[in-house]
Design goal:
This protein has 165 residues and is an alpha+beta fold. It has helices at 2-9, 21-31, 104-113, 130-137, 154-162; strands at 11-20, 44-47, 59-63, 71-75, 92-100. Helix content is 28%, strand content 20%.
């Protein structure tokens, strides 16, 4: 319980995903279990349901790495109607993007990389060419392993700091 409270305290609203619940749920289902995370970490999707205070009808948490802050969540907040209902599930809404404190930029980039329509990001994946995608996401799984591994933690250190561009 304490860990859950700490997790909730370390997350804040960091963006908007304008889409329907139907599209968001489908995208989450498509990436669940795929090795698209940090160092090919398998993506894990959790449907958390509604909040205890009734302000949110559905929250989806997506974990993309092994660290405590390697996740983001997508949730509705005070819509006044249920975006998951049969009448509304295909309507576009401004869903909130919850990002962990201290890893918000990486989490936001992963939300976009995994196919979620994050507002305010420079371009969608479809609008970027392969070179631009690699530069934007800093394809760290293919970093040249010739980096001196004795310098400040070597490759792992480089990966940690480079992704926070």
């Amino acid at each position: 319980m304490i860990k859950l409270v700490n997790l909730m305290e370390s997350m804040s609203r960091g963006g908007t995903i304008k889409d329907s619940f139907y599209n968001i749920a489908n995208t989450a289902d498509e990436v669940d279990g795929e090795n698209l995370g940090i160092d090919t970490y398998p993506i894990r999707v959790q449907r958390l349901g509604s909040s205890a205070d009734g302000k949110s009808n559905e929250e989806i948490k997506i974990t993309f790495g092994p660290g405590d802050k390697d996740y983001f969540s997508i949730y509705d907040y005070k819509f006044g109607e249920d975006p998951t209902s049969e009448e509304n599930y295909q309507e576009e809404y401004d869903f909130s993007l919850g990002l962990p404190t201290g890893n918000a930029d990486t989490a936001k980039r992963y939300a976009m990389k995994l196919g979620f329509k994050v507002e305010g990001m420079p371009k969608s994946n479809a609008e970027m060419g392969d070179d631009e995608l690699e530069d934007y996401y800093l394809n760290l799984d293919n970093v040249d392993e010739t980096i001196d591994e004795n310098v400040d933690g070597g490759v792992e250190f480089f990966k940690r700091i480079a992704f926070k561009k």
